[in-house]
Specification:
Length: about 375
């Protein structure tokens, strides 16, 4: 079963907020530096089975208060949710009510998820500098060396390079050094019932779905909901999986008949690889195609989480390459932008399906490119030390 987990520290929340594997994709990619939306919401498109959202009233709860009315019963919206979860997740209503009765509103979670005041200027250089840096490169080499056997086995099984897996775990939690201490039950309940922006019914629905999966995991004894710790968005373990991804993509990498994404690096390694493979990773392809783009590259950026061009289509727009009959030329491709808004400039690259697989982990072009560049830096350091 899953062991109780401890995750993301508030002190590094801003830097790590734009990261985590979740189980639904509800919006286009966001490159906003430190944008809260980028972190919590990249989980795989799934059919929602949690109750439909009606906008809640503004959160007036004081820190530490629960979701009970004056008589000690669940507030009406929470009670309605409990009944729907009991039906959709096949969990006894008493179990659902008991868990929700113990949840507490967390004002810090609400504050961290609140919309920012004013527009954040996106900067690829600033974002990259937080993750592709000496500490993570050195720690990544050490993690790779320590878990070489597991990484080799997973790379062979899933076709995902060890360097990419190592880089994702490094970006997410610095190899378990920053695993945080938010109550996942409180965080998800706060965001499901008292989301700070009441107009964002899509976000509220996302967190209600995640909370429903979390309750089911508790009922199945895969984790202890009252003691599970995670990020303020509810992400857990070395790879920062949301509950929906725990349900759908986590795997038992060390074959001990339980999945522990906090205490078992083997489980975390295998789960990251499985997530990427399930989201379109194609073994043997690079993350970026070695392509020279024409001067109108900006017009070729379509956004989104899926590649849309064929190589002949890009060629017809003036794209060039020195590669001859490379495997990536038979795959779908996408032109992505890495912007520096303060300078009104951008760098353009051609992503393969593997780039877009990483964006399903976190729907940010900045994130996926940082993972790719950190992976390359760690791989080159490994080669130089071998």
């Amino acid at each position: 079963m899953f062991k109780p987990v401890r995750l993301l520290q508030v002190a590094i929340a801003a830097a790590l907020l734009s990261s985590c594997a979740s189980s639904q994709t509800t919006e286009p990619p966001s490159n906003a530096d430190n944008a809260p939306d980028a972190t919590t919401s990249s989980p795989p498109a799934t059919t929602s089975s949690a109750p439909p959202v009606t906008p809640p009233t503004a959160a007036t709860d004081r820190p530490g208060e629960g979701f009970l009315d004056g008589t000690g019963k669940l507030q009406p919206d929470v009670q309605s949710y409990a009944e729907e979860v009991a039906n959709s997740r096949r969990v006894p209503i008493a179990h659902v009510q008991d868990l929700l009765s113990s949840a507490r509103y967390n004002a810090t979670v609400a504050r961290l998820m609140a919309p920012g005041k004013g527009k954040v200027r996106r900067s690829w250089a600033t974002y990259r500098g937080r993750f592709v840096e000496p500490i993570r490169i050195k720690a990544g080499v050490e993690f790779w060396q320590e878990h070489r056997t597991e990484l080799q086995a997973v790379e062979k099984q899933y076709g995902v390079p060890a360097s990419i897996i190592v880089a994702i775990i490094g970006v997410e939690t610095l190899y378990g050094r920053h695993t945080g201490d938010f109550s996942v039950l409180d965080a998800l309940s706060t965001l499901a019932f008292r989301y700070p922006d009441t107009s964002r019914t899509d976000r509220i629905q996302l967190f209600r779905d995640q909370l429903a999966d979390f309750i089911r995991l508790d009922y199945d004894k895969e984790l202890d909901a009252r003691h599970a710790r995670g990020s303020y968005a509810g992400a857990m373990g070395l790879p920062q999986f949301m509950p929906g991804s725990l349900v759908r993509f986590a795997v038992d990498g060390d074959h001990d008949n339980r999945i522990d994404l906090h205490g078992s690096p083997a489980d975390a390694i295998a789960s990251v690889a499985n997530f990427l493979r399930q989201h379109g990773w194609q073994p043997g392809l690079p993350v970026f195609a070695p392509v020279t783009l024409p001067g109108n590259a900006k017009s070729l950026v379509k956004g989104g989480l899926e590649p849309t061009y064929t190589w002949p289509e890009l060629q017809s727009q003036g794209a060039q390459t020195v590669s001859a009959d490379a495997p990536w030329q038979k795959a779908r491709l996408g032109v992505i932008d890495l912007v520096e808004e303060s300078r009104n400039t951008a760098e353009y690259r051609v992503g393969t399906p593997n780039f877009f697989a990483i964006t399903h982990y976190n729907r940010s072009y900045f994130y996926a490119t940082s993972v790719a560049e950190l992976a390359d830096a760690i791989r080159r350091r490994m080669l130089s030390t071998s």
